[in-house]
Design goal:
With 316 residues, the chain is an alpha/beta fold. Helix content is 39%, strand content 18%. It has helices spanning 3-11, 20-25, 36-42, 51-82, 104-115, 136-141, 156-167, 232-247, 266-289, and strands at 15-19, 92-98, 124-128, 173-179, 184-193, 198-202, 224-229, 298-302, 308-314. Helix 4 (51-82) crosses helix 5 and helix 8 (232-247) packs across helix 9 (266-289).
Length: 316
Amino acid sequence: MPADDAAATTSLSLYREIDRADWARLAADMAQPLSETEIVHIRGIGDMLDIAEVREVYLPLSRLLSLYANATNRLGADTSAFLREPDTTTPFVVAVAGSVAVGKSTIARLLRELMSRWPGTPRVELVTTDGFLYPNAELARRGLMERKGFPESYDRRALVRFLTEVKSGAAEARAPFYSHMRYDIVPDAHVTVRRPDVVIVEGLNVLQPSRSADDMAVSELFDFSIYVDADTDHIASWYVDRFLALRRSAFANPNSFFNLFSHLSDQEAVQTAMGFWNDINLPNLRENVLPTKHQARLILEKGATHSVERVLLRKL
């Protein structure tokens, strides 16, 4: 192969690779819709999200998602017109995937708020896949309590049914409700989605392939998917920092499932957190979550301070 052809081949990529500065320039003419107080309420424990990060990273991302949603709606309407049928356009579904402690929950909440400010997507709902974990009693029966968060700990068929209802245009779709305080599903409690413009689905394993040729993959029901990426050592550090912060806040609640950790010393808490990370979260990341990264249409690459340093957008 000629040298020029070899160089061209190695430079090819499925993604547009956009550094932070170039991505931030996309927001130059966009008004910042959120106040600092609102951002404080949105960010999770341990996140370093500030108004600059919102303006430079997530505001343009929300606009891009809004453009995709509007374009998909137009295509749906045009298809219905071509078929001489009533318009049956269904909600635009966005997935947000990534490791524990990488900040995907904060990003999902933030995108819900930002997307609802754009014309064409005023009604945005957020559903987390935590609600599709099997109840603790069922996990215990199956011997899976130590693998909570791994793919087999989720009722994948229930999640597929829920998203199928959403994408089929059902007037109402209900997802189970998960309590982080109880560390369990709350019986008879639900999150109800009633044909919004956008549904954001956040979770560890949302980009997992199907288990067999006869099963539908959850990812087949997404219109757009985002993977939040970072160096594994950085994520481990963020996980420990979050555990320490929770020990002083949510874990201190006597009703919390994790109340027993609230009395640990700093050293004991760090050791406990690293035990959970090394025994559960790191293996799950390496075996199940990270391999799905390139299923995503867009990848956010974070640096050591939780700030996004580069954006990879799949070419159309």
